Amino acid sequence: MIHRNARLFSMMTFIGMSLLGAVSASASESPAYKDASLPVDARVNDLLRRMTLEEKVAQLQAIWAARQDLETSDGEFTDAKAKEILGLGVGQIARPSENKAQITTNKTPEQTVAFVNNAQRWLIENTRLGIPAIFHEEALHGHAARDATSFPQAIALASTWNPTLIEQMYTVSAAEVRRRGGQQALTPILDVARDPRWGRIEETMGEDPYLIAEMGVAAVRGFQGEGDDVGKDRVIATLKHLAGHGEPTGGMNIAPTPVGERTLREVFLFPFEAAVKLAGARSVMASYNEIDGVPSHANGKLLNDILRGEWGFDGVLVSDYYAISELMTRHHIVATKAEAAVAALQAGVDMELPDGDTYPALVDLVAQGKVDESLIDTAVARVLHEKFMLGLFENPYTDDAGVDGFIGNDEHKALAQTVAEQAIVLLKNDENLLPIDAATLKSVALIGPHADEGMLGGYSDVPRHTVSILEGVQTYLAGKADVTFARGTRLTIDKGEAGVDSVAANTRSKERWNTDDIVLATADDKKGLMNEAVKLAAASDLALIVVGGNEQTSREGWAEGHLGDRTDIQLLGDQRELVEKVLATGTPTVVLLQNGRPLAIPELAEKAPAIMELWYLGQEAGHAVARTVFGDVNPSGKLPVTIARSVGQLPVYYNHKNTAKRGYAFSDMSPLYAFGHGLSYTEFKYGELTVSGSPVKAGGSVTLSTTITNTGKRTGTEVVQLYLHDKVASLTRPVQELKGFARVELQPGQSRTVSFDVAANQLGFYDQDLNYILEPGVFEVMVGSSSADIRAQGEFTVTGATTDIGEEKAYLTKVEIK
Questions:
Q1: Is the CB of residue 698 less than 8 Å from the CB of residue 807?
Q2: pLDDT at site 7
Q3: For the chain, which residues score pLDDT lower than 50?
Q4: pLDDT tens sequence across 265-322
């Protein structure tokens, strides 16, 4: 990516510019900012010099709650209060696909386009300068909007270990957002998640910075496309949350992050840095948490010095929702909202989301001499640049022709199923119980508290349809075997807004995640359900038992009255007892885990013959599960997190330091399932490791190769994983670090060679002075099927003097498969 720091500096240098003299014109001529033939910077400069301070500050704000006053009860735009709300213009309008708060059903695609166009038209025709707005949406695993395609949850996306597929998925998500009027997505989440108690772990792509970097770069390219511009069918990607959000103290959302700057840089910042430098992400969101006493929204070193200065980011930095005011209400580093606005603006936050809560005070603060207007000019210039780059001044409106047929179409539906199939992780398969031969079955017991509904996880809306595991299995076995459902138990009791049980099945994920109060099921709620399920299992040829969690047992805890973090990571309620009783019937049983966080299930891992981790697989979950259980799909997913045996093992991430795992009295130190683990219906043999290019110096590269052979009878895909270890260094280093991976599809008996070309400059670390250096030394090479299943080993040497390689830092490994 070409950094634009020089461009930004020139953009803000108004006095003495010959261009401004050239574009000076009489009032009767069209202003230069409306001339599409001029460079974007020139248009920004011309528009900025025409703006009043009040109009500038309006560009640094969004509207969300206030947006509802622009709508009728049916979600249609009305200009009754438009002048009051939009009279000075606005930077962004949040989540236009949502309806007013009291409406549970959000806008259709056509209604969304109509609202966006009407709001945009009002801004263009009724404000002094006619500056259009950017509309932002949530799209963590597909556009979180009515009828949009709902893909697997983020942690499931990471389980595919397939950046190419993820780029395709986010390309579709971008197109669905753009076709209904949005231009920016508040995603991808690049938080490195190192505590499974944290309810937002489902929104992340796991615990490893390298894996997240690969997936994050792919996600940004999917959203934005290649190059510096964002195409007409793409949207601005927003990296979040900067930084350290994924290891909160106690696993509690927004809690302080207990890491030093070296760990911050090497672990938590790495995916963000890669996405900025390699994929050109155009927006970043700051995080709620604090690091060493400094909240991220007031952290000038993080946002100005590192993000903008070191990485060259010159896009728009947005606040998390209401996070600037939390500098006062939660962090207590300022006494007033005005002081919060000053702290955030000076730290580098360009735009306040979702509403103007503190930034309106900037007008008076400039007048009082407490804020230099040049800071506001800099932020506004960034916002305007994105609007010109998106082409909103020339093409502000969205064409609604065909939008309803495009959103959630059959092609997108098929992609959602492909992603779901690749996300499934086979954790255990004793005596090759799986896949099941459907021809041998006459009856199947499908058991589980949520097996009969589509489970989507957080940041979801209501797609055109969802396929439950029950529906998927029934459809697959139609005409072959009888499939009977028993709930077995209940976890929580769903309540509608009016307090009525049994929320409509296709809205449960959304309502469950949004509802504040969690009502745990009582013994009366569960009475008779377990006996019914056990009886059904005993009378069936096969039992498929779906256990785990739901959108209330693990979710974003965004307020004291809306919690989602947990003190334990076991199965909730009596699910373990249910599984054990089903196993005791002797009926062949497959345990299917459907959940948002990795669960400690050591007893089931010992007793159950077959276990699959599904996470939340999106709208096509049922079809993906059925096709995998019955062998049409050979599972290829790998865990993007380590699964602990108990909460007492935490932290349990694989890339720990040597001194971190001496052992526990009376307990196994090893994890239940290792990072990168995932079985197949076939077997893969690894050849010896070949090392070429050693010794290597700074600026060079080393190639590490091995041959993989499918020794089984089924076609399968193996995710070959490369781990390195710096054997002796001046500072302690992790015992393993993922430095590359490759998905390799092989026919029975087929062999292919995988070569990893690792740049020496990927191997550095931050020294005691926080310089990024490469030291001479020996690196251990480990290639295998997981971090704990190493199949080929070797080593190579780095030579030469210790070198500061900060300016030539490398990020991702090149892979070749022959």
A1: no
A2: 45
A3: 1-28, 497-503
A4: 999 999 999 999 999 999 999 999 999 999 999 999 999 999 999 999 999 999 999 9
Q: Is 775 helix (H, G, I), strand (E, B) or coil?
A: coil
Q: Residue 306 and residue 322: Cα distance in Å, rounded?
A: 23
- Which CATH topology does 684-817 take? Immunoglobulin-like (2.60.40)
Instruction: Say which CATH architecture domain 5-13+35-405 belongs to.
Output: Alpha-Beta Barrel (3.20)
pLDDT of residue 152: 98
Whole-number Cα distances in Å, 294 to 488, 514, 560: 48, 30, 22
CA–chain centroid gap for 676, Å, is: 18
What's the pTM value of the predicted model, to 2 decimals? 0.95
CA angle 499/503/504 to nearest 5° reads: 150
| H or E, element range at 482 | strand 482-486
Domain boundaries, the chain: 5-13+35-405, 418-639, 684-817
pLDDT at residue 101 in the model = 65
CA atoms within 13 A on the CB side of 765: 18
**Cα separation, 206 vs 718, whole angstroms:** 19
By C-alpha distance, which of 464, 415, 463, 450 is closest to 624?
A: 415
Question: In the prediction, which pLDDT does 15 show?
Answer: 30
Confirm if 39 and 388 have CB atoms less than 8 A apart: no
Q: What is the DSSP string of 509-555?
A: HHHHHH-S---BPPHHHHTTHHHHHHHHHHTSSEEEEEEE--TTTS-
CATH class of 418-639: alpha beta
DSSP state of 296: G
Angle at 160 between CA 155 and CA 164, to 5 degrees: 115
CB contact set of 1 (below 8 Å; sequence gap of 6+): 228, 276, 277, 278, 279, 280, 312
If you write DSSP's letter for every residue of 638-697 in order, what string do you get?
--SSPBPSSGGG-S--SS-BGGGGS-BTTB--S-SB-TT--B-SS-EEE---EEES-SB-
pLDDT tens-digit readout, 626-670 = 999 999 999 999 999 999 999 999 999 999 999 999 999 999 899
Give me 586's structure tokens.
């002797």
Adjacent-strand bridge partners of 135: 93
